[in-house]
Amino acid sequence: MSHLILENIDFSFATARGDAGPPILAGFNLAVDPGEFVVLLGPSGCGKSTILNLVAGFERPGGGRILVHDVAVSGPAPSRGMVFQQAMLYPWLTVLENVTFGPRMQGVPAATYLPQAETLLRHMGLQNHHHAKSWELSGGMRQRVALARAWIMQPDILLMDEPFGALDAQTRSLMQELLLQAWARARTTILFVTHDVEEALLLGTRILVMSARPGRIREEIRVPFATPRDAETLATDPSYGEIKRHALHLVREEARKHLAL
User: Does a cis peptide bond (omega within 30 degrees of 0) precede residue 228?
Assistant: First the structure.
């Protein structure tokens, strides 16, 4: 049974007059199984981030329904964690306080959440930065804190909106490796948005290439590479170049369509 289902989803943003604007999504369908790492790949403006906001419960669809474990999504919930492109840490809190903010607000005993936080911070290479404030951290370190903050809630589904897009190439590569390691341990269901084909092939078990607006799934690519993965090993696989070229071709075609809208 699918973990997450989006069924015939329509969505438009309201105009200044209050009526519906041009459709962002039209008849969008998606089913995600437990433990999958699904990547939404496509040009800017195709509705990728909108899908995450709908699943998170930040937005409501104009038509269709979204189900998690056969229960309709009606609003945000801790079982659906979100990681944004910017870390969005609370600047007045320390690293440890940021990571444990969710459990503390839910009244979870410190004896429960502190060992979890210690483990996550160690996995993220932040074991020596418990008392640092966000402005003392690099961009990559802040994003690692954001990942730990999301994972400590033990979400059923983790939604990631281009979380490494603002990082330099070396830090981005490190974050991708950390994410794959964390996913291998927890097997959390992940829905990940990117416009980067190489990132999609490195991370995903399945890639969904989206069409230009209104967003639909143009093609599904089952990623054949075994896990654990790393960029250097992937580059030597004979099939990697062919799959990458095909995915790039699809994304560029849809980007051209978007520019013509």
Answer: yes
